Amino acid sequence: MMKTAQDIGRVITRYGAELILETASGEHLRCTTRRKLENVACGDYVRWQVEQQGNASVLAILPRQNVLERPDFRGKLRAVAANIDILLVVSSWRPEPNWEMLDRYLISAHLLPAEVLIVFNKADLRDIYPNAEHEACLREYLEIGYQIVHTQAKGGEGLVEIEEAIQGKTAIFAGQSGVGKSSLISQLVPEEEIRVGEIGETGEGRHTTTVSSLYHLPGQASLIDSPGVRDFPLPKLTVSQLQAGYPEFSRFAGECRFNNCTHQHEPGCAIKTALTVGEIPPRRYQRYLTLLKSQINN
Length: 298
Ligand SMILES: Nc1nc2c(ncn2[C@@H]2O[C@H](COP(=O)(O)OP(=O)(O)OP(=O)(O)O)[C@@H](O)[C@H]2O)c(=O)[nH]1
Ligand SMILES: [Mg+2]
Ligand SMILES: [Zn+2]
Fold this sequence. Notes:
Blueprint: E1 7-15, E2 18-23, E3 28-32, E4 45-50, E5 56-61, E6 67-71, E7 77-82, E8 86-92, H1 99-111, E9 115-121, H2 132-143, E10 148-150, H3 159-166, E11 170-175, H4 181-188, E12 213-217, E13 221-225, H5 239-244, H6 270-276, H7 282-297
Parallel strand pairs: 3-5, 8-9, 8-11, 9-10, 11-13
Antiparallel strand pairs: 1-2, 1-4, 2-3, 4-5, 6-7, 12-13
The structure holds guanosine-5'-triphosphate, magnesium ion (MG) and zinc ion.
């Protein structure tokens, strides 16, 4: 049947100029985009219409709540997904955790803004590749109040906690390639066929997921699987934007002698004092310094 009225839909996935749209009645439609809508992304709400030729096309992107972006290989910012309520940053014991990248995701969640949940997958490998330094890094996140869920895709461990955290929300799984994002999602939505990939000898992922896709869970949750990354660089931020991504600093807000204190070498710095008495986690602080320097120099 031909429909000419404009309608609202949500972008489920996008391959170049073509995308899959979910209509208000829950149907999935193949759709095209016009060039000026180049940045339409998974999770976007759009206005669409059936053209005279019978093909569906997107007319406009509705205002976004937020958009998660990352630079492509040319350094141009690309939308990973839009309208995100909660960012689930997934790490694993193999491939090994990349703590600097986790910190950057947490800063990014704060900027979106979106809630955040740290997911540690492959709990079965935690004792097979024991690592005291990684455990110490992980403890620091708990100390400063981040919620961490340990999962195991095959055994189903931690899936209930994830379902609870994302209920009624749009959630995205992000993180390194090979940590098991798609494996977790296929456990959560078993009726969907989702590709997972093997990891290499040294634990590196194979970039199996190539585009973001949105899946529905019972309880009104929408869950977006995103392509694994090698790195997650941040755009250029101001020092205060960067610092806002460190909840452990907030207790000491306003206590440094200089109100534009970078917490590096300034006299009367409350953060450095807190560090010496063990009230600021040292590993997070060292990585903050590295990130601050890279932001200042780029
Ligand atoms: N031991 C173990 N392996 C797991 C677990 N979850 C996933 N894997 C394996 O990890 C590998 C990568 O899984 P994927 O789900 O494709 O990982 P991904 O994060 O989606 O990777 P990209 O799509 O490349 O970003 C597969 O071989 C999975 O079987 C787990 O809990 N324990
Ligand atoms: Mg995947
Ligand atoms: Zn300071």
